[in-house]
Design goal:
Number of strands: 9
Radius of gyration: 27 Å
Strand order of the largest sheet: 4-6-7
Number of helices: 20
Structural class: mainly alpha
Order of helices and strands: EHEHHEHHEEHEEHHHHHHHHEEHHHHHH
Shape: elongated
Length: 525
């Protein structure tokens, strides 16, 4: 990631902007258009301060208390009380990149000029991001309606100089101390500002954007794992032919088939199954199993799901989400745009796709370990079956993860628990959908790593005693070579967990894909 800075203006952030700031610590600046827009909308709020007509969040309480009028001399206290009471999360700390993504998303909405906050508030948010100050947020607290209220409140609390934060080095310190060390004065919130800081889908949106970035890599890695398994199980590449997939031209399926074709191009092992020295057809199975033959259909459906999710994220990244909002003609209007249903649905949809891709990967792995289906390999890929167990328990690990992924695929967004004395009587649970998707993506990473580890071991065993080195395609040979830099080849049983972790890291950082791409004539779809 080479993006060093992001300018936040009145227009939409790009997914690359979110990843750069949230995951890689890119610096943030505010565009002059944003500063002007915020100043203009703040003038609207200031004009309503003495207005006798109630205005939600300006001169009234919140939620079910919206009918209560708040005197002028208590309105700063109103904003402080809102943030303090709503910073009520609990549980394990949310990952740093999630918090930074949430902060950037809220900053982007502030910068639209539709929320009525002073430029000072947004400038302080940006300064906190640039200083690496990350408020501590617990995993429980957001219902995904009226925004990610509790998570966003912890950030606003830190803006006020209260609560706990992590420094850029990860040290846990009081927010006041971190702000002082960075030379950032805490902000005393004025009318409407507390509400504007917490009414948004920014947490779940940030998780969606980060998940999409991960899934682009992982779905291509799934194609790589499938190609290695097809080769290692002496399958056929005929089912990936371009004209066959043109008969059912779902874009994701076509792309996945093309990816697998490229990865298998020139494979000696595949060629050996097609013809003998006399030219006779040697492939004895009428059809490969679904987990091999139908990989493009499943991986392609996951790609289509990802494309839909990204279309939702793109709209959300260009949205101004607050309640009430300042319209372009100067009205202050209540609305329901903070409801997280659009984002929650696609987070859940992606968890379903992730579970299915992982399930298919586990089935391919299992075929390597069963002598009735592995076509000549040792039982469990053991060096000396009976004395050694090979990858028997690695598949157990996969199976355990896949079982959990099926549970995580149960949608959060179908649930709703009313809150705020029935004022907020239908909620999205989008924050929960985002957290479980992150766990699912971690599981998919591990499942694919074990498949690649197993396929590479099987291919090594097929090459044993063969002259001329690796009998894989150029791309798969490159992947095997890169894996062998960190994980030794077949032999007697040894401590397996570190090898699984090494493979996971290579999948997670894209090193195995990079090895394949270095030798391919064109990028994978």
């Amino acid at each position: 990631m080479n993006q060093q800075s992001v300018i936040v203006g009145i227009g939409p952030l790009s997914p690359a902007d979110v990843v750069a700031v949230a995951r890689y610590g890119a610096q943030v600046g505010l565009g002059p258009d944003a500063l002007a827009a915020m100043a203009a909308s703040r003038a609207v709020i200031d004009s309503l301060v003495d207005d006798g007509t109630p205005h939600y969040g300006v001169s009234t309480g919140f939620g079910a208390l919206a009918t209560k009028h708040i005197p002028l001399d208590q309105r700063s206290q109103l904003q402080r009380s809102l943030i303090r009471s709503h910073a009520a999360s609990s549980g394990a700390e949310v990952d740093r990149e999630v918090v930074r993504g949430l902060m950037l998303g809220r900053l982007s909405t502030l910068a639209t000029g539709r929320t009525g906050v002073r430029p000072l508030v947004a400038e302080t948010y940006a300064a906190m991001l640039n200083a690496g100050i990350t408020p501590v947020i617990g995993e429980y607290g957001s219902l995904g309606c009226s925004g990610d209220l509790a998570p966003l409140s912890h950030v606003a609390l830190a803006l006020m100089g209260e609560g706990s934060v992590r420094t850029g080095s990860g040290e846990l310190v009081p927010a006041a101390e971190a702000l002082a060390s960075a030379g950032i004065p805490p902000v005393e919130l004025r009318e409407k500002e507390g509400l504007a800081l917490i009414n948004g889908t920014d947490g779940m949106l940030g998780m969606l954007v980060l998940a999409a970035a991960d899934l682009h890599r992982l779905l291509t890695t799934a194609d790589l794992a499938a190609a290695m398994s097809v080769e290692g199980l002496l399958g056929t590449d005929a089912v990936f032919a371009e004209d066959l997939h043109a008969l059912r031209p779902h874009p994701g399926q076509v792309a996945s088939a093309a990816s697998i074709r490229s990865l298998l191009e020139g494979s000696p092992l595949i060629a050996e199954q097609l013809t003998s020295e006399t030219g006779r057809h040697r492939f004895t199975r009428v059809q490969d199993a679904y987990s091999l033959r139908c990989a493009p259909q499943v991986h392609g459906a996951a790609r289509a799901t990802l494309a839909h999710a990204e279309s939702v994220a793109a709209i959300e990244l260009g949205s101004a989400i607050d309640n009430p909002v300042i319209t372009r003609d100067g009205r202050i209007e209540s609305n329901g745009n903070f409801h997280g249903a659009p984002v929650g649905y696609v987070l859940d949809f992606l968890a379903i796709a992730v579970a299915d891709v992982a399930s298919m990967s586990e089935r391919r792995t299992d075929r390597f370990l069963d002598t009735s289906r592995s076509h000549g390999l040792n039982a469990f890929l053991a060096h000396d079956p009976g004395v050694d167990s090979g990858h028997m328990i690695a598949q157990y690990t996969q199976a355990g993860i896949v079982s959990e992924l099926k549970r995580l695929a149960n949608p959060a967004s179908v649930d709703s628990i009313p809150s705020s004395a029935m004022q907020e009587d239908h909620v999205s649970m989008g924050w929960a959908a985002g957290l479980k998707l992150r766990r699912a993506i971690d599981g998919l990473t591990r499942v694919l790593a074990i498949e690649i580890l197993t396929a590479a071991r099987a291919l090594d065993m097929r090459d044993g005693g063969a002259e001329g080195g690796l009998r894989s395609s150029a791309a798969i040979a490159a992947v095997r070579a890169r894996l062998r830099e960190d994980v030794a080849g077949p032999g007697t049983d040894r401590y397996l967990a570190p090898e699984i972790e090494a493979a996971r890291l290579l999948v997670d950082d894209g090193a195995l894909l990079a090895a394949a791409l270095e030798v391919l004539p064109a990028p994978l779809p």
